[in-house]
Amino acid sequence: MEESNQDTYKTILRPSEEIFFKEKKSKFFGYAYPISDEDEAKPLIEALRKKHHTANHVCYAWQLGVEEPHYRANDDGEPNNSAGMPIYGQIQSFGVTNILVAVTRIFGGTKLGVGGLISAYKTGAKMALEASQIVENTLQQRFVLKFDYEQMDQVMRTLKQQQIEILSQTMELSCTFIISVRKQEAEQTLELFTAMHPPIGVKKKE
Fold first, then answer.
1. What is the spatial distance between Cα 175 and Cα 192, in angstroms, rounded to a whole number?
2. Which among 2, 9, 4, 1 has a CA at the least distance from the CA of 184?
3. Which CATH entry fits the domain spanning 8-137: 3.40.1440.60, 1.10.760.10, 3.30.230.30, 3.30.110.10?
4. Which CATH class is domain 139-205?
5. For residues 151 and 158, is the Cβ–Cβ distance under 8 A?
6. What pLDDT was estimated at residue 136?
7. Where are the domains of the chain?
8. Strands (DSSP E) along 93-164, which ranges?
9. What would the pLDDT profile of 124-143 be if each residue is shown by its tens digit?
10. Residue limits of the Impact N-terminal domain (predicted)?
11. What contacts 114, CB < 8 A, 6 or more positions away?
């Protein structure tokens, strides 16, 4: 990201509609999917291969992560860097992450040349992203709070004042809360709870 303290990122809300266009008799189908793990990409690509069983190429690119994003681009048999990288270029252009964009090609008998392929795959990716609902999400940091029952009022009052979300709470011999805050407010939240008297147990949850 451009700024180290930026804690928002853009992704898509749900899979895009299928987009379709033709270029010199070749048929192109474009898709965009939100993903949170690279393991999610493979079954989506396999499903496209089954759906378009006459397709010569199912090319794609994905990007995951926000602070340290990583990506993969696959030409699936097309000339080197003529498909996957143009698709990835559109992911960068739209500024989205945690996303898979795939473009399927059914060959129409006329070669497009490397320049034509780059243009076609770029267009397919662009149309799929334009057909998607892009949303802005916030990076979250989770904490585990451990404290005694006597401190419940103090903790609950602080959580309410700071509008901090409680993800789960366990009441046994002592209390354990898992809370979630915006990443850029993480250190401030940590200080808030460690400064309590008596101090309560608080640690980041990975």
1. 18
2. 4
3. 3.30.230.30
4. alpha beta
5. no
6. 87
7. 8-137, 139-205
8. 99-106, 134-138, 140-147
9. 999 999 999 999 888 888 88
10. 24-129
11. 79, 82
